[in-house]
Amino acid sequence: MTESFSAEDLARRRAASRRLGWAIGLAVLALYILGFFIKR
Amino acid sequence: MSIATTVHGEHPAEHYPGGLLRWLTTTNHKDIGTMYLLFSLVMFFVGGLMILLVRAELFQPGLQLMKPEFFNQLIGVHALVMIFAALMPAATGFANWMIPLMIGAPDMALPRLNNWGFWLLPPAATLLTLPFVLALFGVGDGAIATGWTFYAPLSVQGGLGVDFAILAVHILGISSIMGSINIIVTIFNMRAPGMTMMKLPLFAWGWLITAFLLIATLPVLAGAVTMLLTDRHFGTHFFDAAGGGDPILFQHLFWFFGHPEVYILLLPVWGLMPHVLATFSRKPTYGYTAQVYGFIAIGLLSVIVWAHHFFTVGMPVPALIYFMFSTMAISVPLAVLFFCWIATMWKGSMTFETPMLFAVGFIVLFGIAGLTGLVLADVAADAQYHHSYFVVAHFHYALFAGGIMGVMTGVYYWLPKWTGHMYSERLGKLHFWLTVVSFNLTFIPQFFLGLAGMPRRIPDYALQFAEFNAISTVGAFILGISQLLFAWNIWSCVRGGPKAEARAWEGAEGLEWELSSPPPHHSWETQPVVK
Amino acid sequence: MKAHTAADAPHGHYFVPQPSLYPFILSAGVFTLALGFAQLINHFAAGKWFMLAGTAIILYVLFGWFGKVIAESQGGAYRDWEDRSFRYGMIWFIATEVMFFAAFFGALFYVRVISVPELGNMTAAHGTSLWPNFTGDWPTSGPKGPQFTPMGAWGIPAVNTALLLSSGATVTWAHWALLRNNRTHLNLGLAATVLLGSIFLCLQAWEYHHAYTELGLTMGAGAYGATFFMLTGFHGFHVTLGTIMLIVILLRCLKGHFDAERHFAFEGVAWYWHFVDVVWLLLFVFVYWV
User: Fold this and answer.
1) Do A4 and B347 touch (CB under 8 A)?
2) Is residue B409, in this structure, part of any structural domain at all?
């Protein structure tokens, strides 16, 4: 068994995964939009 | 029905033979699962050793270590061993161990058949590799040298290695079909009261679709290699234009099996992922229903897209367009699965134990496999990439990063349940990072090699490919050697380690975590009731 | 996909058999047989002895394993829950057999629809051909194949169709008799089925003899010969297995096994028999007739 995590720790991780999710989502969206401007 | 209780007795444990005989005679799904997993691990190293020889030969241009004939044998047997003797048995081992625990069944539905399914594997692996040994004694010219695809007419002309491989494939096929029938029957007939199909754990759902695919396609492979055998020895002309046959017929039959085979290798892993992601995100799985329908959709689509493996063979344009679009259609349900995996982690309290690392690594790397697959599915682009190292890199992202890393996810996730001990988290993480870095070191250069036009399955290459090949070989050796850590970690976990609790992971949900770790030899003899 | 669960079988535990060495011995037999076959086709003298030994081992296991299962069944070990497992298992086993035959039918359709017409169309399509005189008509043994006469549909094959269709009826007659506990009709129906199957096999053997000695129709007769013999040959092999299974069931019936409620083995074999029957109808239409 891994060490158990405190309630605060878990809450902090929850917030972190939400932030990271938004960040990745925005990055993908930015790449997608960028694609419209790239001409070969 | 009072006789029934006297026939099977209350405490059968007393009659069990010990030692080797226990493993030869067992009807217990946990014992059989263990045998499948150990066999898979051994064959993983056998297949790996073969490909390290190949990479050593490819370290520099020119022929250094071996004759081209031996090189050809190594690549083909590497693939057959990895697919049929390492990946498929690993998935079947998972199924044997976990499906009865997950669905609250006392055992697999047909226990003796289950044992037969396993014990067919060592003979088949022996048949496959025996020609290597025979060649050492001057009998025959070595193992099958056609690549794993057996393409006619090369396979019609090959030596006795082809016959051994054909018979090995027949036996492996019987084994897989027996395993599949058993799994389907177990899932349909052995679920705990109250566990409806839409409450079935996703791992079992993934395996159910896998089993149906095996039943639909493996007999076709058996038929194809049977025709090959009669073409070789009994005078038929299935694959010979002089008799009105066609070598391309073999490609159609082979890939009617071969493409679903990819999903056969991957669906168990896709079924396992949501369990791991949910556990370490401490959240319920996102989109259970969507994932079930995703599995079914992929299963159905997978049997109607086979010809994209030989776009360049000369098919009518309407056929090319059909196979291109149907192939690309698979990306829709697959994208649904990716979305569900990511959404399961979204807003979760994520912790990164080894299984979770492997799961996240799987999502990223398998994503690359999917995207490069879309490139290859494009008929116009495929004309350039066909039979190049781009294809090799693509399917290793699918089958190593997707298949084998998925299996490693499952092994780390369930080892505490199987052994009752925790493995070394430190070694596990080291194993993960070494594997991921060296895997990419091996296969990213192969994308570039393929784009630059290096053909696969050739022991020599032009000078401009030298640097990338050298990098790839270094990566492959690090990758191979790091797997010793994996074996060592499993070994020491079996031997001892900190005690694992029944619910080995904090966020784990499901019937399998209600049982002690390790579970008793006979579990769920009285079925649990699912609300 | 209705949920069948233990709730339907409240009388105790699922039957998990004791450890058994049969599966391992069977694998050893299969291995020996395969090893022998690989030697035989590569002209090693020991091949046939290996095959003989492998066959002997497999036969030993078939008698031992099935004997044990029959004893368990007669001992009342199997109830509704176990019975359902066998039924599902048999259904999906037959599904694999369907796909096995599908591979050979696929090969037949491929040569008839794609490869043979294309070979005949080479000059028109590409301006050149290795075999300009090849027309691509079916039946054919291909551009370089031997002369042969194709097998007509309305001789022995039509008789065989009638035989197999009536055997499907007689096995159903036996089944109805079993359900009504009419043992005489059960035994008569099964015996008639075995008889019809055996006559079918004899006629099939005679047809093969006729093909080889008089028609020049051999396995080497190009696409037609290959598909003809592989399809009818594997079908004949399955009829042989089915007949053997029916004989076993008949012997069990004569010993008083099975009752109206508990007779999976009978039904499994009957399903198998209907399956070979359906395959034959497809064979008759696509191999012999059109």
Assistant:
1) no
2) yes
Backbone dihedral angles phi then psi of residue B200, each to the nearest 5 degrees: -65, 135
CA B283, CA B506: separation in Å to the nearest integer? Answer: 11
- C196 belongs to a structural domain: yes
Any domain includes C219: yes
Q: Would the pLDDT of B524 be above 60? A: yes
Please identify every stretch of chain C with a pLDDT value under 50, giving residue numbers as ranges.
1-11
CB B217 within 8 A of CB B192: no
Asked whether residue B111 is assigned to any structural domain, the reply reads yes
Handedness of CA A21, A24, A27, A31 (dihedral sign): negative
B122 assigned to some structural domain: yes
Domain ranges, residue C66: 20-77
Do C229 and C160 fall within a single domain? Answer: yes
> Tell me, what's the pLDDT at B15?
66
Question: Any chain C CB within 8 A of the CB of B219?
Answer: yes
Residues B31-62: tens digit of each pLDDT: 999 999 999 999 999 999 999 999 999 999 99
Are C284 and C161 spatial neighbours (Cβ–Cβ below 8 Å)? yes
Task: Name residue B91's amino acid.
Answer: A
ipTM score of complex: 0.94
Give me the DSSP letters along B312-343.
GGT--HHHHHHHHHHHHHTHHHHHHHHHHHHH
Tell whether C71 and C97 lie within a shared domain. no
Q: Any chain B CB within 8 A of the CB of A11?
A: yes
Angle at which helix B29-57 crosses helix B68-80, to 10 degrees, equals: 150
Contact B480, B52 (CB under 8 A): yes
Chain B nearest C-alpha distance from A5 (Å): 9
Q: Is residue B524 part of a domain?
A: no
Cα–Cα dist B123/B18, whole Å = 23
Put simply, whether B240 touches C (Cβ < 8 Å) is yes
Per-residue pLDDT reduced to its tens digit, C252-263: 999 999 999 999
